[in-house]
Specification:
This protein is mostly helical. The chain contains 16 helices and no strands. It has two domains: 219 residues, Rhopdopsin 7-helix transmembrane proteins, CATH 1.20.1070; 124 residues, Homeodomain-like (Arc Repressor Mutant, subunit A).
Length: 364
């Protein structure tokens, strides 16, 4: 058993280091892969400081390693969100969640390491719950965004990623606590984690050696800036029909429009429409495609002096946005200013009437 543990433990460390090298060599320009680096560090700390005492780092030297590896789930959460959201950035919300997680989990970890914190064991169940909540949220986001994702390789990855998360959570958190509850050896939970990490690490190395540009590389470009691409001649007729229904019939203004609904209107198979929008037009998700048209409509309305007294929210709703928050986020991401600022600086806009539209600011 000791030999098997050494194989999987140190094999996993070697694989993690290989992944880090591949990221630094070929993928450091990709936001999601950059966020994988702290996860690799924390997982390495876990493998160096747990398991059989003859194979791990013991004593005071293990304390900082165990405090670092307790952040594994935060780093998994960040990495997963970045992997499936092209516009993901670490912001106040993510840092706040990380701070709350650390405040709850750190005392429990320190108590397990021998620090005199008897009250910390009362936080064991809350720490377990917050860990499950983070992983459940990540799995939910991975599956939820599948319908809007236009990158086929990433759509396939979403389901597998959610399953992998479930496996890791069950083996590394649930089984460990069950083992403690029934008096069994929690070492089996750690050994299962070693094996799972080893297998997933091998897959990660194979994936990174191919460096799936289709799924990752375009993340370096803002979604509001889509490069003009050549339309395949065989898709020209379909492309013209799509442009017609979007620009002339204003299909983008339909609230709740999905790619399935648009495909039905065009009488096209959904997968064919995905390929057309992604490969021929350069969009990576359906929302970015819709927002291109919706924001263009909003810009024209904001610069129209005949609509100077029309509330900005009304303009947004008429363009197809369902509520204030997503409209503000999309507008600011595209133009780096609020809608009211854009309206105010329009050369065609008279001074009178501008004040009638209150500045809409996204506080999310």
């Amino acid at each position: 058993m000791l030999v098997l543990e050494a194989l999987f433990r140190f094999g996993s460390i070697g694989i993690l280091l290989a992944i880090a090298i591949l990221i630094l060599r070929d993928g450091r320009h990709i936001p999601a892969l950059r966020l994988a680096l702290p996860l690799i560090i924390s997982m390495t700390c876990l493998f160096l400081s747990t398991g059989n005492e003859n194979l791990r780092i013991n004593g005071a030297a293990a304390v900082p390693l165990r405090l670092i590896d307790m952040l594994n789930f935060i780093f998994v959460w960040w990495f997963g969100l970045a992997l499936f959201d092209d516009d993901f950035k670490l912001g106040p919300r993510q840092w706040t969640v990380a701070a709350v997680f650390t405040a709850v989990v750190a005392p429990v970890r320190m108590a397990h390491l021998g620090f005199d914190l008897p009250w910390a064991y009362a936080l064991d169940i809350p720490s377990f719950c917050i860990t499950l909540a983070l992983m459940a949220h990540l799995a939910y986001r991975a599956v939820l965004g599948r319908k809007e994702d236009l990158v086929e390789s990433r759509r396939r990855l979403r389901v597998g990623f959610a399953v992998a998360i479930a496996l890791v959570v069950v083996t590394s958190t649930v089984t460990e606590r069950v083992a403690y509850a029934i008096g069994a050896d929690p070492y089996l939970s750690l050994f299962s984690t070693y094996i799972l990490t080893f297998m997933m690490g091998l897959w990660g190395v194979l994936w990174l050696t191919r460096l799936n540009q289709d799924a990752l590389a375009s993340q370096v470009l803002p979604q509001s800036i889509i490069a003009t691409t050549a339309i395949d001649p065989k898709d020209d007729e379909t492309h013209q029909a799509l442009v017609q229904i979007m620009e002339t019939q204003r299909a983008f203004a339909q609230h709740g429009l999905t790619i399935g609904g648009l495909a039905r209107q065009l009488e096209l198979p959904e997968h064919q429409l995905r390929v057309l929008i992604n490969r021929s037009m350069g969009y990576r998700n359906f929302s970015a495609f819709l927002n291109h048209y919706r924001l263009g409509e909003v810009k024209r309305a904001l610069a129209d002096p005949n609509k100077s007294r029309l509330p900005i929210l009304t303009i947004a709703l008429e363009a197809g946005f369902s509520s204030l928050a997503p409209f503000n986020r999309a507008f600011k991401a595209a133009f780096d200013m609020t809608p009211s600022d854009y309206r105010a600086q329009s050369p065609l806009m008279p001074d009178s009437g501008v004040a009638a539209t209150a500045d809409i600011t996204d506080h999310n």
